[in-house]
Amino acid sequence: MKETAIGNYQLEICSNSVASAIEAEQGGATRIEFCQNLENGGTTPSFGQLKLVRKLVKIGIHVLIRPRGGDFLYTEEEMLEMIADIELCKELGMDGVVIGVLNADGTVDKANTKRLVDAARPMHVTFHRAFDRVQDPFGALEDVIALGIDRILTSGLRNSALSGAPLLKQLIEQAAGRIVIMPGAGVDASNIKTILADTGAIAIHSSAKESQPSKMKFSQDQVKGMDEAQWMSSKEKVHQMVDLLKSL
């Protein structure tokens, strides 16, 4: 699908629903990282979501392959689940998948990551923020490059890409064009230009999200929960970042 550059840059929006993906496209995003359960760091969307988003959204769709929240140390059953999800994404015509598997010692699980990469091709492959839980980011970068992965989403091993900018710059310099390093985490219109300038990145990731309260008129006050506000990508927030990228 179409992934148009915005000036010299690419803007990926993490969208946690079909409605969010539509908002990202309308705001001018290059592509979406499609997931659900953003409140728990994101997990793989359902079959229904995948089928519908591919029908309705014409920009690039890269699907998060993550069977659960928590860490990135997976059982064999979870590996088989992820491979099955990747095969489904391929059948539905997705543009790429977003993966990441670690060993217990904080290194990249090269053997299991290769299984996912092999299952994914010829789709594009991104290594996600499992990278931000590694012990040695410089060694992990070389491992990911050796696996033939196309892109790494990382905050520079910090809680936000702005805080991680010094390491992101080092990683981009070490990568030397062999892989795309894409800053993400806490990116918005207030800091996107600073992060790009400080790191030298050419691609950047944001959820562009805002809280949407429940539209229920009746509230059952004797029951706690099940009426929480939901996160949703905002086309206005996406458009603000697009305009800033066009000005660079």
If you had to describe this structure to a student in words, what would you say it looks like?
The structure is a single chain. By secondary structure, the protein is of the alpha/beta class. Helices cover 35% and strands 17% of the residues. It contains eight helices and ten strands. The protein has helices at residues 18-27, 47-56, 76-91, 110-120, 137-146, 165-175, 192-199, 235-246; strands at 10-15, 31-34, 60-64, 96-99, 124-127, 151-154, 180-183, 203-206, 209-212, 230-233. The strands form two sheets. An eight-stranded parallel β-sheet has the order 7-6-5-4-3-2-1-8. It has a two-stranded antiparallel ribbon with strand order 9-10. Strand 1 (10-15), helix 1 and strand 2 form a beta-alpha-beta unit. Helix 1 runs parallel beside helix 8 and helix 3 runs parallel beside helix 4. The longest helix is centred in the middle third of the chain and has 16 residues, at 76-91.
Q: Biggest β-sheet, characterized?
A: 8 strands, parallel
What is the tally of beta strands?
10
Helical stretch tally? 8
The percent of residues in helical segments reads: 25-40%
Structure classification: alpha/beta
Q: Cα-atom Rg, whole angstroms?
A: 18 Å
Distance between the termini: 25 Å
Low-confidence residue ranges: none
Order of helices and strands: EHEHEHEHEHEHEHEEEH
Strand content: 15-25%
Q: Please list the strands of the largest sheet in the order they lie side by side.
A: 7-6-5-4-3-2-1-8
Overall outline: globular
Round the mean pLDDT to the nearest integer and report it. 97
